[in-house]
Amino acid sequence: MNTAAVPAPRRAYLDNLKASLVTGVIVGHVLIxxxxxxxxxxxxxxxxxxxxxxxxxxxxxxxxxxxxxFFLLAGLLIPRALARKGPKDFMKDRLSRLGxxxxxxxLVVFPIVRWVGDRRGRSLAxxxxxxxxELDPGPLWFxxxxxxxxxxxxxxxxxxxxxxEPRSWRPSLIVGLAAGIAAATFIFRLRFPxxxxxxxxxxxxxxxxxxxxxxxxxxxxxxxxxxPVPDRLRRRAGLAAIGGAAVIAAANYGLxxxxxxxxxxxxxxxxxxxxxxx
Length: 278
Prior knowledge:
By secondary structure, this protein is mostly helical. Helices cover 71% and strands 0% of the residues. It has one domain (12-277). The protein is globular and about 60 Å long.
């Protein structure tokens, strides 16, 4: 593996991005609580449309992009950690950092959260028993997904080590990835609409984006594509993000009022995926 097996200096832009994303997730769940969109353990929806419209836009944009960015960050950091620790110690570390918190939240924390938000007077014991049947980890579904993706990457690198010579960056790579994620997301959501049931509520409808950006992060780390980020790429990506957000906002409010996320077989879903691809 061409990633140096030594501790890397902290990169401020990654810390800033992580802090911004975590803040966005917290704000998003607060908005879900008080806006008539999404699902959460506690709901107290407002009737104020002046609040609901921007809240819905924030949640929609966040649900489309936030988790993918988290997996991109994970992909950027994993190759160096694997090179430094080796497969066995790396997976032990992943199990302790991801597996144990996931189990604790699944079996202890989330039943309590659901009980606190319950308005039907059900007992805490009822929620603990229901959790054993439903296996719903709430917002920590991504922790299990990241553990699975990390294990798959370790298995891949054991079977096929990374190239010693880095690949060169080509703009067509990001265009092809964006088109592939958009197409795969469209197809996946026909079979797995948003909030459709899966074991551990793994949000399979988001996996094309999560896997694609996780893989992109790994490729960037192994080939040094973002050390540093080329100014030309940064400017073009910023313009594409603004254009995509505008298309999504228009689709959400002018055309389908949020139904585009539901997995309906319609041209509106396609327009949503076009905005995502941009």
